[in-house]
Amino acid sequence: MSKNIWTKVVFFVSILFVMGACAVSEEQVLELAQDSFEKKMSQERKEHTYTTEDEVSFYIPSYMEVTEIDEYNILLHHDENLFLLFVNDFIEYDSKEVLMEELLLEEDPFIIMLDQLEGKSSYLVVTTHSQDEFQVVVGYDGVKLTTITSLKEMIDTAEMMFDIAQSVDKED
Question: Residue span of the signal peptide, if any (predicted)?
């Protein structure tokens, strides 16, 4: 009987060890976010896969669905994940303070990055939404995407959001 108990204890400790090894720390996310932000700024734009009735064209992953709210707001969704795409955010953010003010942030965000490359500004802002969730806002050249995600999914989500935001073309 004691062999059976020890087997269960070893199994339980092994599971805890594996779960701990798979967990993502906030420090790891900060480092990965910085690397990802820099890479996304210089990447090639993705090809358009969707065009709205108002002739806004952009890339979306094949698994996403689109609901057009109006000419400036587009709702993207997959399962329970929602993304609000806002086209026409033409405010120049020349400092983190201006960006925080525009986004109505009262406290310092978990992540805030702001950059400009070849005349196109971009930003990544992550704030705490709830105990286990974060609000992610990605902006690129007059396009803003917002969603709520977990710490574990944050980097992949932000990278996909950059792919979408960078691809947007609005026909005038």
Answer: 1-23
